[in-house]
Specification:
About 50% of the residues lie in helices and about 10% in strands. By secondary structure, the chain is of the alpha/beta class.
Length: about 240
């Protein structure tokens, strides 16, 4: 039987970083999986949820459950959106028509790196990236999903990649979803701290499994003219021998 995954694409990727979605597909196919993209999917509801608009977030969450219920494996290139589904849906969807399905469906949702390492049992996807890279451990992935070594393990198996650990790699970059909009000065200061940690490694690239973190870091790096370039983990894993 052919192995199939359903691809869950976050809004950040869909609207601002579409290459991450394409690279995720490439990586999953190279790992031996057929990828389906349910076109009925929409936002998971996190922006509204984080702003306290639970009523507005609920229809998005209900739609997610209905759209992805048929699939055995659901993969997302974002720790933040994966955490929203796995951690917030059980409470958010209490008393709804999909309540009985929630726990079953969310148990099948995985962020890309944890899916590859823990479900597919793949740590080498045949990629080559001849550059020095440091890893930013995003808050939602680390603290809510306990994703710690999976991205690093994948990076260590990329041919010609030099992984340089940064100090305080799991310190928040200042994005925090709507936090960066509500607390702009604090958010920028946190990004400056992260920039210093990245700069200290001398790495050419900084990677993460969260698009929102990378967008926030990239914005600050452009302003401060940092040397390192942000890149999503999927894009590194999608790189091939040239």
């Amino acid at each position: 039987m052919e192995k199939t995954v359903a691809l869950f694409i976050p809004c950040f990727v869909d609207q601002l970083m579409p290459q991450v979605g394409l690279d995720t597909v490439k990586v999953l196919r190279r790992a031996g999986w057929r990828v389906e993209f349910p076109e009925e999917q929409t936002c998971c509801g996190q922006p509204a949820f984080n702003s306290g608009f639970f009523g507005e977030a609920k229809p998005c969450a209900e739609r997610f459950i209905r759209v992805f219920a048929p699939y055995q494996h659901i993969v997302c290139p974002s720790g933040s959106c994966t955490a929203m589904v796995r951690k917030e849906y059980p409470e958010l969807l209490k008393g709804t028509q999909v309540e009985s399905q929630v726990l079953d469906v969310i148990s099948r949702v995985n962020e890309l790196s944890e899916f590859l390492v823990n479900v597919a049992k793949v740590t080498d996807v045949g990629s080559r990236f001849p550059h020095s890279v440091t890893y930013h451990a995003s808050c939602h992935a680390t603290r809510l999903l306990n994703i710690r070594e999976e991205p690093r393990l994948l990076l260590r198996n990329v041919k010609d990649l030099e992984l340089r650990e940064m100090g305080h790699s799991d310190e928040c970059c200042g994005s925090g979803g709507t936090f960066s909009l509500k607390m702009g000065a604090i958010s920028a200061a946190m990004a400056d701290n992260k920039a210093e940690f990245v700069e200290a490694t001398g790495a050419e690239f900084v990677t993460s499994i969260d698009p929102s973190c990378l967008m926030h870091i990239d914005g600050r790096f452009r302003k401060t003219r940092q040397r390192a370039k942000p890149i999503h983990l999927a894009s590194i894993l999608a790189a091939e021998e040239r």
